[in-house]
Amino acid sequence: GAVVSQHPSRVICKSGTSVKIECRSLDFQATTMFWYRQFPKQSLMLMATSNEGSKATYEQGVEKDKFLINHASLTLSTLTVTSAHPEDSSFYICSARDRARLNSPLHFGNGTRLTVT
Amino acid sequence: GQQLNQSPQSMFIQEGEDVSMNCTSSSIFNTWLWYKQDPGEGPVLLIALYKAGELTSNGRLTAQFGTTRKDSFLNISASIPSDVGIYFCAGQRSDDMRFGAGTRLTVKP
Fold first, then answer.
1. SS3 for A87?
2. Chain A residue with minimum CA distance to B102
3. Please, what is the average pLDDT of chain B?
4. Of B1, B42, B95, the CB nearest to A111
5. How far apart are CA A80 and CA A19, in angstroms?
6. What is the pLDDT of residues A5-28, one digit of tens each?
7. Residue A72 in this model has a pLDDT that exceeds 60
């Protein structure tokens, strides 16, 4: 089945530094990938839609300069949390869909637990 | 974005019992999906439904795409301890996907 690989699975960083999270589709190509944030015991909150070869689309309330998204190829999207602060600590998850299959479901990465100290 | 209405929020059941959860929406979706999320991991697709009225099984799991295209349910039969986790429904149309808030399932041995 479709596999989405997310790296790293856990990262601890100091306040003020930046962290990059990668999302790769391993056995399919994805024109669009999605980034979510999940707080404890809550559902997935869509942050932004990553579009290959063009700018990402951000959900209302998500700062695009804070959460930089790059989708440079059909198999890779990256999310960079810039100048991280403790309130950015969260579980970040990406998802992607096989562009070759109409109405194919989203497949999710295993998430990245970010802790900002 | 607007979420789907998923219920119940949580369930505490005995091993061997059947479980039922559902999702409703005010909007029509072309696809309904059910995912399970274990702690510290990403959601894993359980069942995908593509046609109104469709009933699909995956082992002990059965899900249906409501005839109005605005709802779906998931049943788990003869629950086992490894069924523990959070179950999310998702409605999809084009690139727009909405999630339910999740049903947290606890199974007591």
1. helix
2. A43
3. 93
4. B42
5. 5
6. 999 999 999 999 999 999 999 999
7. yes
